[in-house]
Amino acid sequence: MYLSLENISAKYGKLLALNNINLEIEEGKIFGFIGPNGSGKTTLLRILIGLKKQKSGKIKLKGKQIKPTKTDIKKMLGYCPQENSFFDKLTVKENLKFFAILYNVKYNLNKLSDSITKSLNLFHKINERASNLSGGMKRRLNIGCSIVHGPKILLLDEPTIELDPFSRMAIWRLIKTINKAGTTVIVSTNSMEEANFLCDKVAFLLEGQIKYIGPPKNIIKMIDDYIWSE
């Protein structure tokens, strides 16, 4: 298996945010975490990217235990958080070049910026200040900043939150395109529609535990049962 989590637990103070998480993610697929707010989705992503340290458990890549904070592993990972991570006062191109420099990308940065903005359908806004972009364009730029170094694994935390249906569909198609180019994608979402459109497999999280792993189409009854049990 490509990426696996073994017995991962995490705490915030005395609160147990994740409780003994075990899962496997296949290379080249789109894997989703779905669940209500506070279920542990963002915490899992933060552990995978190295922004949060687990209380216990192991992360393995191709069977070998890894630490996401190590330089060679960080180069393999891209992370797009819920909040915009770029700088409003910089242009689209300046933001992309800035993040490329952070990742020590050894490539012509002007050509790289042109290529990424074309793939994001932002080339016509390449010299526009980021603060002037629409909500959907800002989300595309946010994703662009997370892929400038060509990551093997891309982690997306609720990438279409608060977007209108048209912008949401544009982001979904962008994610599919990134995945088809060979990037393994891990996405957290509150949307069953999003999970169905994007994911090959999902994990349903509830109160820090996995209640289901499998195709998204089979999870609807579990979510329905959870809602009616409240």
Spatial strand arrangement across the major sheet = 6-7-8-3-9-10
Return Rg in Å.
Answer: 18 Å
What structural class results from the helix and strand content?
alpha/beta
Q: What is the number of helical segments per DSSP (H or I, 4+ residues)?
A: 8
User: How many E-type strands?
Assistant: 10
- Beta-strand share of residues: 25-35%
N→C terminal distance? 36 Å
Helix content: 25-40%
- H/E series: EEEHEEHEHHHEHEHEEH
Kindly report the average pLDDT value. 92
Low confidence ranges: none
Q: What is the global morphology? A: globular
Q: How is the main sheet built?
A: 6 strands, mixed
Task: Describe, in short, the structure shown.
The protein is an alpha/beta fold and 230 residues long.
List the helices and strands and how they pair.
Elements: E1 3-12, E2 15-25, E3 30-34, H1 41-49, E4 56-61, E5 64-65, H2 71-74, E6 77-80, H3 92-102, H4 109-119, H5 135-147, E7 153-157, H6 165-180, E8 184-189, H7 192-198, E9 201-206, E10 209-214, H8 220-229
Structural account:
- This protein is α/β, with parallel strands linked by helices and about 230 residues long.
- The chain has a domain of about 60 residues.
- The protein contains eight helices and ten strands.
- The chain has a six-stranded mixed beta sheet with strand order 6-7-8-3-9-10, sandwiched between helices. The protein has a four-stranded antiparallel beta sheet with strand order 2-1-4-5, covered by helices on one side.
- β1 and β2 form a beta hairpin.
- The mean pLDDT is about 90.
Main attributes of the structure:
single chain; 230 residues; alpha/beta; 6-stranded mixed sheet; 4-stranded antiparallel sheet; 8 helices; 35% helix; 27% strand; globular
